[in-house]
Amino acid sequence: MKRTLAVVAVILAVLLGAQGQALAANFAKPFEDDTGPVTSGSGGDSCSETWAFTPVAGYVLRGKGCFSKNGDVWRIQDAFPDGTQTFVYWENWLWSGDGPGAQWKPYRYGECTNSSGSDTWARCNKDYYESSNTNVYGGKGSKIRFQTCRRVPADNVCTPASIEEAPWINNNG
């Protein structure tokens, strides 16, 4: 019985958006989970949105996540009054150096969560390496990718495979 409950708990964690830790096997830093305080303002250099189809209204915006290179700031909007959280799952990769063995290596990953309710924006402030600076691996290069997600099993399109489809952002703010 206990084993069955443990398996169910793991499956629910994945369905509810805790997939970041499942992806983490090769990241140098531990998972970062930030709940952003309410903030005014929106937008950023790069944004991603999550939409859902409703029979009454058609497609509606569920949430929006944006990244600003200047200051390494995440902004996340909960745009739908359904009582669930909106969050951004992000990954930061660094270039390992010069020479024939140089490659992109996973460095940091985490979430910025908006728990403040619908029609609000939350903000998480990070400090990533800039592409023009020498990083911890001895190279120059920093890139970020992210996706905007919901903690609703039926609507959560954030899976380990879906982050692979996200475009890379060169972090040179």
The tally of beta strands, per DSSP, is 10
| Amino- and carboxy-terminal Cα gap | 52 Å
Uncertain regions spanning at least 5 consecutive residues: 1-25
Radius of gyration: 17 Å
Structural class of the helices, strands and pairings? mainly beta
Give a quick account of the main beta sheet: strands, pairing sense, barrel closure.
5 strands, mixed
The spatial strand order of the largest sheet comes to: 1-7-6-9-10
Anisotropy-based shape: elongated
Mean pLDDT over the residues: 80
Q: Could you give the order of the helices and strands?
A: HEEEEEEEEEE
Number of helices: 1
Helix content: under 10%
> What percent of residues are in strands?
35-45%
What kind of oligomer do you see?
single chain
General description of the model:
The protein is 8% helix and 40% strand. With 173 residues, it is mainly β. It is elongated and about 55 Å long.
List the helices and strands and how they pair.
Layout: H1 2-15, E1 32-35, E2 38-39, E3 46-54, E4 58-68, E5 73-78, E6 86-95, E7 104-114, E8 120-125, E9 142-150, E10 169-170
Parallel strand pairs: 1-7
Antiparallel strand pairs: 2-8, 3-4, 4-5, 5-8, 6-7, 6-9, 9-10
